[in-house]
Structures are given as structure tokens and as C-alpha cells.
Amino acid sequence: EDVTANAPVVAAALRAAVSKAETTGDLAAIEAAFKKFTETGKASASEVAAAQSLLTKKFIELSQAQDPAIQNMATMTKESSAYVRAVEDAVDAESESIKASIALAKAKGDTAEVQRLLAALTVQEADGAVRIAKAKQAEQEAEYVLAVAKRNQIAAIENKNAAQNAELALAELVVQKELAEALAAGVNTQAQ
Hints:
Elements: H1 7-20, H2 24-39, H3 45-66, H4 68-108, H5 111-191
């Protein structure tokens, strides 16, 4: 028995192959093989749509994993997050240092120094809040750039799929036209 005549078997093989694909090249080869199968007319429209959806999801996953620009942006986003944590830690350390100096001045009974240090603490906390806010802004901007790049990549893939779906619909219409012409030729032959 020809296993390619069994669409569920082919669909299962497609899922297995897609899950093992490691590069977009692997995926392109799988897609080409599946396209040959669909051209036989042995797959329903819903099976073709399900396969196309599976291929698209994996292609997006692999494309983003292999795209150096997206990888660089993801790295920048991670580094921005690490920078925010470092700024927060530095601000906290500066505050703790001033608070320790305040405690020491209180222990010595130096009220003028306590007052000066309390003013310094207030300024340091305000400056620290600004530094943290700027670091978080840079982090958000990096995340935004990454999200835009991923969205643009997905949009490009969707446009490619839309074109492929249009080609598939056109091919289906050609098949129907050829079938109608064959039937008409058969009717003409019988009439003659």
C-alpha cells in the first residue's frame, strides 16, 4: 500500500519532521516535500491549512532563534535588565552608607552632622530614583525594539504565507477548471 495515499500518516510524519527541524533550511526542505504531497490532491484543505500553520509556527521560532539582529536585541534587553538591577543595588548601597554615617553621627551626638547627612540622604535618594528611572526607561526601550523586530518578522512570514495560500487557491481553481474541461470533453466525445 502506498503510505502517501494516507493523509493522516503523512500529517503525523510532517509533525515529527517539523519538531526535529533545527534550521530554517530543514524546514524549507520539509515544506517542499509536503508541497509535493499536496499537489497530488490527497490532502484536504483543512489538512493543508493545519500543516501550513504548524510550519509557520516553527519557522517563526527558528527564524527568531537564528536571526542575529533579534539575538543581539534580546541580548541588549537582558543586559538592560541587568543594568537596572546594578543601578538599584548601587543606589541601595549608597543609601545604606549614608544611613550608617547618620547612625555613627547620632552615636557621637553630632546633631549638625546628622542634619547634613539627612539632607545628603534626601538628595542621594532623589538622584538614585532618577538614575533607576533612566535605567528602567532604557530597559523598556530595548524591550520595545525587540518586540517591534519580532512583530515585523512575523508580519513578513504571514505575508509569505498569504502569497502561498493564494497560489494554493489558484492551483485548486486550475484543478477544478481542468476537471470541468475533461468532463466537457467526455460529454462532447459521447455526443459525437
